[in-house]
Amino acid sequence: MWSGRFKFGDGWAAYRGPADANTAHRHAAIQIAVAASGAVAVRCDDAVVRGRAVIVPSMTRHEMLPQEAAVTAFYLEAEAPLGRALRRLCPGDTAMPAPSAVETMFDAADIAGTIGRLSVQLAGQGGAPVDPRLSAALDCLRHGTGAPGAVRDAAAVAGLSTQRLRELAQTELGVALSQWLLWQKLARASRALSDGAGLAAAAAAGGFADQAHFTRTMRRMFGVTPRVAADMLG
Hints:
By secondary structure, the protein is an alpha+beta fold. It folds into 2 domains: about 5-120, Jelly Rolls (Sandwich), CATH 2.60.120; about 130-234, Arc Repressor Mutant, subunit A, CATH 1.10.10.60. The chain has helices at about 80-90, 100-105, 110-120, 130-140, 150-155, 160-175, 175-195, 200-205, 210-220, 225-234; strands at about 5-10, 10-20, 30-35, 40-45, 45-50, 55, 65, 65-75, 95. A hairpin with a 2-residue loop joins strand 4 (about 40-45) and strand 5 (about 45-50). The mean pLDDT is about 90.
């Protein structure tokens, strides 16, 4: 069963515990699944990728295969420095075993230490800074309520048309702005669950239209329901 726990940080989240049944899903974050011992297995379409650490690029449809041994799954936001650095080091759109130079940075038992090592060793490898106009728009959206018209308003704050904002997001983040927004909603809702909110309240905190929308999005992007997630986040 999913009996582990989630942790959240600036631009990242992580789950540590056993991997149980989940449906094929995809999300805007870059995922790195790390085995505490042996190998972790991730199915992408009809292929199964195995390794001590497996990298799943943004928006890659995948399913982590169940295993009782502890697994740590790191989720790095596409626009964060770590996410951008990993995109440059591990380009592509399918899951792959992490290159040895990257694998050695991950410790399944030490989430904070791993993030610290990544921050130091990958510093400056993310390429050119994110366009400041895009950064301004994303910051506006990240701290907003997700109300209708939010993208239009964020584009105006950044001095961009809505279409140009969407184009910049796709180019620089590697994912559609709509998918990035769904990830942010899930992150807000998940933090609310972690703080003890009920499912309906968490859905509202994330900016979802209702609990049903929250449930559909959680299943599509994580392969589990909010009720299962609440047990991991409680």
